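Supplementary notes (optional reading)

For those who missed the lab, this is the record we used. Protein: Cytochrome P450. Length: 469 residues.
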Amino acid sequence: MPPVAPYWIPYFGHVFEFFRDPGKLVQNLRKKYPGVPFSLVMMGTKFHVFDSVESASTIFSRSRDFDFSPIVASMMQNGLDLPDQDTQIYQGTFRSAKGSKPFQDLVHNAYIRFLTGKHLDSIMKVYRVNLVHYMNENFQLPGTEKRNIFVFEEMRRLVFATSVTTFFGTRIQKDYPGFWEDFRRVDDTLYAGVRSNLPFRLSRQAWQARERILLAFDRWIDTAVQEWPGVDEIWCEEWGLKLNWERERLHRDNGITSRGRSCAHLSFLWVSMTNVGPLATTFLMNLLESPIYKEQFQSKAESAVTGYSGNMSDFDLTKLKLDPWVQGFWKETIRLGSTSASARVLQKDEQLEGFTLHKGSLVFLPVQLMHYNPDVFEDPTKFDPNRWIGGEDKRQNSSLRPFGGGSSICSGRFLAEQETLLIAAIFLLRFDIKIKSPQKPFKRNPRALGIMGPLRDIELELRPRTGGI
């Protein structure tokens, strides 16, 4: 078993240091244990930390032996109040003509089918219409009039409004004017709340906000699902994405309770928000902090505009996404901006890097150790999009793990990428944007579950761009 890093408080172990700054904790311990795995203790549980490319590949390629299902079920139970009987289904299997598979494979396959390829292209067309609509509502500036905004707060609001309409249609928002305020309170609580239900027990306001959201989803799912009601094969006002209509049917068919289904839909919204809000903010700030990068991205975004229809430009998002420099910029943003960690539960005894790990043990892969590894990334703290250009570095790509890996890799990763690129492009095509001064420089908040937002929000000055879309 890997050596246990020293700690002062029995049972709690490293938990307080971890919650304060998980990346700093594991990077400091990596210096103490160079080149070998080590173990953390949090709330009486050992987490065995591995970060080599080889171990990550082994863990992600053997999803049955290194199981993600108990982690998902625990997070949903703690953070979203998933009922006990549904937790058992989430950790269980279903039988088919092809044999037994984890229930979560069913859910994952539904996501994959809709959030890739032509289906994703169609979803992004709906997303773009809604994004432009909400930007017109909230960022319409006449003439040369300027407006100051705090970027993270406004980005979260914008992404939330766009996501709710795109993903869930228009029904759920009716008669719920406080949806955003409730969601923000829940989102702010979930950093600790997915690991323990204690934060919701201690905060009556957070518990009530979560309950109001779940009640709204209870009402939203209280309708027939026998036939898809839309003419369009991707989206309708009643259900939003056909993906969510199919997920609802899937959960009903497998015995998930009404409240469990509401938790599942809220989890989709939350996972999207916990990534795209910070991602869009961080991506835009990385551009604004470098005039050269800003001009380069702006030029590539302009070349992706293909025409105009009504009050909205037609935009070739695929062209922008496939540009090698844009891909490099995207990869650097997620490399330096990720603080996620993949946890897996062993389903049998294993040997890993010479250590014996027993069934039921937890293995832990903090991506910051992989993303800041100087043996893989030269000058790892430097933001350098060009490190990804001019040849495929297999070791770099194998070490880039912001969305996990294997059969449980985040199914929404391509959606998150396209949302981020589209938001950044529209902002820079519409506005001349400056960072207000004086203010403290942009710094990432280490207390995040996926992508880090700013530690302190940054004030920007927006002016309509001459010839902007």
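If you only remember one thing from this example: The first helix runs from residue 15 to 20.
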